[in-house]
Amino acid sequence: MIKEQIPDIIVGRLPRYLRTLLLLRETKTTTNSKELGELLGFSAAQIRKDLSQYGEFGKQGTGYNIDYLIDSLNRILNTDKNWDILLVGVGQLGQAILNYPGFLKHGFLVKAAVDNNPEIIGQKFNSCVVQDVRNMKEIITENQIQIAMVAVPAEKAQEIAEELVEAGIKAILSYAPATLTLPSQIRVEYSDPLISLQHITYYL
Amino acid sequence: MIKEQIPDIIVGRLPRYLRTLLLLRETKTTTNSKELGELLGFSAAQIRKDLSQYGEFGKQGTGYNIDYLIDSLNRILNTDKNWDILLVGVGQLGQAILNYPGFLKHGFLVKAAVDNNPEIIGQKFNSCVVQDVRNMKEIITENQIQIAMVAVPAEKAQEIAEELVEAGIKAILSYAPATLTLPSQIRVEYSDPLISLQHITYYL
DNA sequence: ACGTGTGAATTTCTTCACAGCC
DNA sequence: GGCTGTGAAGAAATTCACACGT
Asked: Which of A53, A79, A173, B141 is the most exposed place for a label (fewest CB within 10 A)?
């Protein structure tokens, strides 16, 4: 695949561009690298260079058509289709995830949720019935799910992650404060407020 | 301050080093850059270079004393003391935050929480009584709070953030899927699973 | 022999600055 | 005139490789 060589640091900025464009779309039809840069805190040159990795989306003298750039970015990020997600761990955080409408709005559907707590299994959150974690593998296979969100305690995260990989999961978004060690072809992202807080306090 | 010139990209890795060391401490007293690197997915050279920015923590031939390095990192990150935090927005996510014990375990105390919903105001979560958002400024001043977590809807995030800055907040951890535009001396971090998911799908 | 700390080399990322097109 | 796309320049981050202490 050609796009393998585009640096991950650039890929990581694309979703931010997309988000800002969605906001701008509400009030205008055109923007430019200067405006985007100011809204995001990046340089205009960087935005132009990043986008130019994927094609020529702008027009000299005019800038970028917002709708067109949004469509393009969605295509690049593979977010022009819907993705099914498996949630592992339906504690307080997991429940908040199930009830949060933002994922679906951006094409991410929490298709199934599993837990090991008998009191949670069978409960319904936002039309998703929690299933037994012991059925995890079949759920993944049957629904051909590629992405899992992990919202289990830190001590359980590695173990769960390995089971997920074995069951065929391709990418994991982990909310657990733990570093996962997995085969390199598995994509792992962390949503980890503790790390962020510790980063913040450095500067205070 | 001298440390201003140490690149933020290095600072951002320090909390990860700290986390791994806390894990290692349970089974050993000494480690080295190779082991840390393997656990974290960084090169050994990078870990040595990062740490050397702040002093000489290791011993040739031996490696690093884990306890000593943990103490050192805590001092560097300012996490050797406790921090009070204000939570803005006590919806589902906010409630999960209030009930999550992990913050306190690492020295972050959610000292106060505010919301604008009359049904939520007055409710108690994990010994924290939700107060009216209209009292936000006094709460910040009286408790001399420097860090705020923002767990409000995306549309409200910018407005709330500006009020926080006006009230004297120095750093914000935002859970809202929105880019905040604030004075540069305010430190902002994001905990944003949607961005992470969109980053993930690029590779699927 | 082992593993740190570090200048030097290398690679990667960002910004510059401008030709070219609207 | 305005703004993109892009080679070239510059800055920053990472890795190399080894002297040196244990």
From this structure: B141
pLDDT tens for B29-40 read 999 999 999 999
Nucleotide D11 C1' to residue B72 CA (A): 30
Which residues in chain B belong to E strands, given as ranges? 30-31, 58-59, 63-65, 83-88, 108-115, 124-125, 128-132, 147-150, 171-174, 187-190
Q: Which of A124, A78, A77, A85 is nearest to A104 (CA)?
A: A85
Encode pLDDT of A21-46 as tens digits.
999 999 999 999 999 999 999 999 99
Within 150-189 of A, beta carbons closer than 8 Å to B belong to 154, 170-171, 173, 175, 177-179, 181, 187, 189
- Of the candidates A166, A189, A169, which has an alpha carbon nearest to the alpha carbon of residue A179? A189
The domain locations on chain B are 2-76, 83-197
State mean pLDDT over B64-82.
98
Query: Chain A within 8 Å of B54 (Cβ-Cβ)?
Result: no
User: A2-76: which CATH topology?
Assistant: Arc Repressor Mutant, subunit A (1.10.10)
Superfamily of domain B83-197: NAD(P)-binding Rossmann-like Domain (3.40.50.720)
Residue A2's pLDDT band, with cuts at 50, 70 and 90, is very low
Q: CA B174 to CA A193: how far, in whole Å?
A: 9
